[in-house]
Specification:
It is a single chain. By secondary structure, the protein is mostly beta strands. It is built from 1 helix and 7 strands. A hairpin with a 5-residue loop joins strand 6 and strand 7.
């Protein structure tokens, strides 16, 4: 599942989609403008090449779910970029602190898309 968030109005979800292949995911990502914030949770991305996801690192195994929160574009990844793996179905909670010292939490739960 991928969620596209407006970088100017944080919290404004622009699109939310699921894909059956990494090729379809890559094609979709290539239609998005630079600067968009991406939240991605997926499995089966071991051999995926997603160069527009700054800081993206493919998981070592297709059996692990990838959690990525970052920004589209080129250059260096923002300091708040998260790219990690967890076992399928694991509860994941990520704390993100913005520059105005507000704290936001993005949380995914087992069985919730």
């Amino acid at each position: 599942m991928i969620v596209v968030i407006d970088q100017n109005y944080l919290g404004c979800i622009l699109q939310c989609r699921s894909f059956s292949s990494s090729a379809d995911l890559s094609d979709f990502i290539n239609t998005l403008p630079n600067g968009r914030i991406i939240a991605l949770r997926a499995t089966g991305l071991k051999d995926a090449a997603l160069p527009r996801l700054i800081g993206f690192q493919p998981p070592p195994s297709d059996d692990l779910q990838l959690i990525y929160i970052g920004q589209l574009g080129s250059g260096t990844s923002p300091q708040w970029t998260v790219c990690t793996t967890e076992h399928k179905g694991a509860l994941v909670e990520i704390d993100c602190t913005t520059s105005d010292n507000s704290t936001y939490k993005l949380r995914t739960e087992k069985g919730v898309a």
